[in-house]
Amino acid sequence: MLIEAVLGDITTQDVDVIVNAANSSLLGGGGVDGAIHAAAGPGLLAACHELRATTLPDGLPVGDAVVTPGFDLTARWVIHTVGPNRHRGETDPVLLSSCFARPLELAVGLDAASIAFPAVSAGVYGWAVEDVARIAVGTVRVWQEGTEAGWTPGHPRPHGIEVVRFVLFSQNALDAFRSELDRA
Among positive and negative, which fits the CA dihedral 175, 127, 35, 62? Predict the structure, then answer.
């Protein structure tokens, strides 16, 4: 499995799944969330309204994730996850880790081969990008090791995900993620 970090716009990535750093309302917002909603078109907001009216009347809990179609995006699916907000006292790294692990689990259920993540909780949610990079990369590596235990080269991978891409919004974020990826 290739794990990489790139500078760019997550909404234009040619992947099966993009992960949205959503708020618990799922009804759009600023930053990555606003960009994904804008690029996906009105179908995404309608799908999120439907989730709120049915399975998530209280919103999506911090650390959890839910799938919608990608609508006008190149990606077939959007997996929304709610990162912990340090400004609200949500400082548990386990919650942040779950924002990377849960989307991977859901992507496997979609039979996805590629997934793109933003730096969930970095920026307006107050987490230092270096902490997000360490937790994100570490979570993906632990998930990869756990799902590939017993995998024999030459046989299909047990999960089907071939590419995990971190799509970063700034050079500083890219440097933080690349630094973590360079660690053995």
Answer: positive
The answer for residues whose C-beta is within 8 angstroms of residue 124's C-beta and 6 or more apart is 30, 31
Contact 21, 28 (CB under 8 A): no
Residue type, 33: D
Q: Enumerate the H helices of the chain as residue ranges.
A: 31-40, 42-53, 93-109, 129-147, 171-182
Active site residue 64: no
Global model pTM greater than 0.85: yes
Q: Which amino acid is at 4?
A: E
Token pair recorded at residue 40: 């996906």
- Mean pLDDT per segment of 10 residues, for the chain of length 184 residues? 96 97 92 95 97 97 98 98 96 96 95 97 94 97 75 57 96 97 88
Bridge-based pairing state of the strands 17-22 and 77-82: parallel
| Helix (H), strand (E) at residue 114 | strand 114-117
Domain 2-182 has CATH 3.40.220.10: yes
Measure the CA–CA gap between 2 and 49, rounded to whole angstroms.
34
Catalytic residue among 9, 14, 16, 33: 33
